[in-house]
């Protein structure tokens, strides 16, 4: 499995001198599993990837969306394969109760927000709604999506290919005290306890013995806000230990975080982690 980090920044894109080394594009990972082209999230990092896919005449594209907060879908209108009549783009995400995945994507790309509505693009676009924990096979890859604790309906992905495991766990508050997702909040205290347990099991299942876990570490401990739905490096270390992972990539960097600050975070948590740790960098390619 070949992985390329196309966007590693959380919340909104940044273009500033402080962010040139780690990069300012919002989340997007390119994952090549044998002949299969997988993409996780459609933040602004997907724009450069789309250009490359058109150049290489890649026609079958599978886009796994964690959730539809803007930083994870805002690159999609600028994704060049949409305008390629030979392309077939399948978009996967957890089902919402009240709105279809297709409606959500059509809404972001309609006038007056964008000049080309999704109905008018050349590519064939298909929407596939997933259920929490439902395994699917795409090409030679086995994929599972599990719900996570974050506002709206948010899932993480576990991708297995030829015995290697990539786990993508963003956005999430891994051990937070508040239930944040749609449909989680209004139950009895017993129902809420069951939700907390379920969500922690989900994160552990996603990460179990992963060769690489890409994990939301938006906050430093002193910045943590329990109602935002993001984690700290400490949370990633705790999950990594529980799940016996090999390597963690700190991900979804806070937009104001400077390159030097990210260097320092990487240095600090490398000393504490019982496994390999690095801060995600835009453009980084690695093989599992
Ligand atoms: Zn995000
Ligand atoms: Zn989010």
**How many DSSP E strands?**
14
**Average of per-residue pLDDT values:** 97
Hey, roughly how much beta strand do the residues contain? 25-35%
* CATH-defined architecture: 4-Layer Sandwich
Cα-atom Rg, whole angstroms? 18 Å
Q: Helical percent range? A: 10-25%
Q: Which structural class do you get from the secondary structure elements? A: alpha/beta
Q: Sheet with the most strands?
A: 7 strands, mixed
- Total count of helical runs of at least 4 residues: 6
Head-to-tail CA distance between termini: 5 Å
Assign an overall shape: globular
Poorly predicted regions are: none
* Strand order in space, largest sheet: 6-5-4-3-2-1-14
Description:
- This protein is an alpha/beta fold and 288 residues long.
- It has a single domain, classed as Metallo-beta-lactamase, Chain A.
- It has helices spanning 46-55, 70-73, 101-108, 189-207, 233-243, 259-272, and strands spanning 2-7, 28-33, 36-40, 60-64, 88-94, 124-130, 135-138, 141-147, 155-161, 164-169, 212-216, 247-251, 276-279, 285-287.
- The strands form two sheets. It has a seven-stranded mixed beta sheet with strand order 6-5-4-3-2-1-14. Strands 7-8-9-10-11-12-13 form a seven-stranded mixed beta sheet.
- It is globular and about 50 Å long.
- The termini are close together.
- The relative contact order is 0.16.
- One zinc ion binds at residues 67, 69, 150, 171.
- Residues 10, 69, 71-72, 171, 252 line the site of one zinc ion.
């Amino acid at each position: 499995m070949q992985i390329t980090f196309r966007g590693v920044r959380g919340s909104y894109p940044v273009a500033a001198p402080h962010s040139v080394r780690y990069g300012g594009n919002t989340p997007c990972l390119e994952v090549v599993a044998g002949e299969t082209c997988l993409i996780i999230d459609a933040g602004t990092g997907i724009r450069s990837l789309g250009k490359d896919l058109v150049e290489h005449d890649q026609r079958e594209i599978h886009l796994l969306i964690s959730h539809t907060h803007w930083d994870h879908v805002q690159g999609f209108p600028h994704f060049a394969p949409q305008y390629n009549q030979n392309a077939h783009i399948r978009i996967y995400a957890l089902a919402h109760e009240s709105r279809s995945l297709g409606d959500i994507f059509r809404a972001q790309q309609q006038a007056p927000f964008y000049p080309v509505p999704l109905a008018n693009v050349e590519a064939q676009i298909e929407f596939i709604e997933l259920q929490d924990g439902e395994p699917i096979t795409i090409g030679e890859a086995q994929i599972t999506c599990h719900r996570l604790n974050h506002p709206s309906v948010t899932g993480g992905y576990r991708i297995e290919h030829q015995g290697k495991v990539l786990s993508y766990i963003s956005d999430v508050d891994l051990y937070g005290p508040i239930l944040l997702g749609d449909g989680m909040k209004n139950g009895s205290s017993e129902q809420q306890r069951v939700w907390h347990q379920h969500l922690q099991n989900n994160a552990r299942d996603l990460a179990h013995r992963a060769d690489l876990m890409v994990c939301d570490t938006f906050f430093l401990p002193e910045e943590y806000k329990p109602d935002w739905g993001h984690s700290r490096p400490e949370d990633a270390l705790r999950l990594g230990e529980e799940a016996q992972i090999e390597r963690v990539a700190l991900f979804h960097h806070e937009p104001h975080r400077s390159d030097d600050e990210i260097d320092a975070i990487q240095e600090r948590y490398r000393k504490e982690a019982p496994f390999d740790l690095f801060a995600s960098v835009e453009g980084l390619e690695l093989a599992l």
